[in-house]
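stage 2 :: seqdesign
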C-alpha cells in the first residue's frame, strides 16, 4: 500500500511541477475551504488540513495568501464539490473528485476524458465501495519503531506503519489525521513528505504494458482538467 502511494505521488508531483496546474488546484481548494469557514487555519480544521497538504507540494506562499485574502474579501465565486466514479481498461476503477462553478461543463469534460481514453463513467457507488478513506502521513528522520513508540505513548491508534527507504508512512483513520500529525510535531518533526486524506483501493491490480499505457493516458486526461482536484485508482503503477 505504501509503495503504491509513493509511486503515485512522485509521478503526479513530477507531472504537475512542469505545468504548475497543481498550484491552481490548491489555490481553488484553499479559497473554497477558507470561504466555507473561518479564513484562519487555527479555527478552521479543513483549511488547516489543506495548508498542510499544500506544504508537502511546495505550493508558493503567495498563492496560499492570495486565495485566503480572496476568501476574506467575500469572493463571489461559488464551487460545488463533486465525485465521479468510473472504469478504465480491463475493468480498472477510478474515483474523480472535482470543484466546479459549472456542473454541466465538468460532467461533460469528465465523461469525455473517460470515453476518449478507453474508459466509461459509472453510477454513484459503482466504484467507491472498493476504496477506503485513509489519512496518509509520511516523515523522515525516524524509524518505524520510533514512530510506533511515539504513537503508543500518545495513545493514538493507526492502521499501519510502513518503512520505505528513508521515510516512514503512517496510515490511519481520516479523523485521526490531526492527532497523528500532532504527535510527530510534538516530537520535533517540522516537515512531512506526505500529508493527505485520500481514497486507497482495497486491492490493487497490475496491467499489461499496453493496458497500463492506456490507463495512464486516461489518468493524465482527467488530471489535466481544470476542475478536477484528485484522481484515485486501483492500479499498481510499478516502480
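stage 2 :: out
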Amino acid at each position: 500500500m505504501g509503495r503504491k502511494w509513493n509511486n503515485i505521488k512522485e509521478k503526479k508531483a513530477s507531472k504537475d511541477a512542469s505545468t504548475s496546474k497543481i498550484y491552481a488546484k490548491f489555490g481553488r481548494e484553499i479559497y473554497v475551504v477558507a470561504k466555507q469557514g473561518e479564513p484562519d487555519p487555527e479555527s478552521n480544521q479543513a483549511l488547516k488540513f489543506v495548508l498542510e497538504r499544500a506544504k508537502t507540494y511546495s505550493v508558493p506562499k503567495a498563492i496560499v495568501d492570495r486565495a485566503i485574502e480572496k476568501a476574506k474579501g467575500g469572493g463571489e465565486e461559488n464551487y460545488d464539490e463533486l465525485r465521479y466514479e468510473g472504469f478504465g481498461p480491463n475493468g480498472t476503477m477510478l474515483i474523480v473528485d472535482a470543484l466546479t462553478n459549472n456542473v454541466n461543463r465538468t460532467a461533460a469534460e469528465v465523461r469525455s476524458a473517460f470515453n476518449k481514453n478507453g474508459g466509461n463513467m459509472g453510477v454513484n457507488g459503482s466504484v467507491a465501495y472498493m476504496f477506503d478513506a485513509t489519512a496518509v502521513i509520511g516523515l523522515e528522520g525516524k524509524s518505524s519503531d520510533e514512530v510506533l513508540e511515539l504513537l503508543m505513548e500518545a495513545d493514538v491508534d493507526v492502521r499501519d506503519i510502513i518503512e520505505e527507504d528513508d521515510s516512514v508512512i503512517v496510515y490511519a483513520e481520516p479523523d485521526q489525521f490531526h492527532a497523528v500529525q500532532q504527535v510527530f510535531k510534538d516530537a520535533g518533526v517540522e516537515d512531512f513528505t506526505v500529508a493527505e486524506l485520500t481514497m486507497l483501493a482495497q486491492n490493487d491490480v497490475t496491467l499489461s504494458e499496453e493496458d497500463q499505457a492506456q490507463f495512464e493516458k486516461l489518468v493524465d486526461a482527467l488530471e489535466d482538467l481544470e476542475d478536477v482536484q484528485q484522481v484515485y485508482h486501483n492500479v499498481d503503477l510499478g516502480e
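stage 3 :: structure notes
- Residues 154 and 177 are 14 Å apart (CA to CA).
- Helices lie at 2-19, 21-36, 45-56, 61-72, 103-116, 144-153, 177-186, 209-223.
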